[in-house]
Write a structure and sequence with these properties.
Blueprint lengths: L2 H10 L8 H11 L5 E4 L5 E4 L32
Antiparallel strand pairs: 1-2
Length: 81
């Protein structure tokens, strides 16, 4: 899958804060080919573990998977939200 396809899939997945299940599942599936283990903790974090040699450096990559969500209550006659 190309970088553009990956970004499109992740961007189109629903990930409003508190409802990140779709993005979490997608990210877990995308990580599997690159890591030895994929797990989720109680807070909903996706953790990919890639085991290295005894003297291999330890690296952590961290990012948000949620997005801002808005609730539109009314639309004015002029089209303003």
């Amino acid at each position: 899958m190309s970088l553009e396809d990956t970004l499109e899939k992740l961007s189109n997945a629903c990930g409003v804060a508190g409802r990140e299940e779709e993005v979490r599942h997608l990210l877990s599936e995308m990580l599997k080919p690159y890591v030895d283990e994929v797990k989720e903790d109680k807070l909903g974090n996706v953790i990919g573990v890639k085991r290295g040699g005894e003297n291999a450096p330890k690296v952590m990559l961290a990012a948000h998977i949620d997005e801002i969500g808005l609730l539109v209550k009314t639309i004015s006659k002029d089209g303003f939200l």
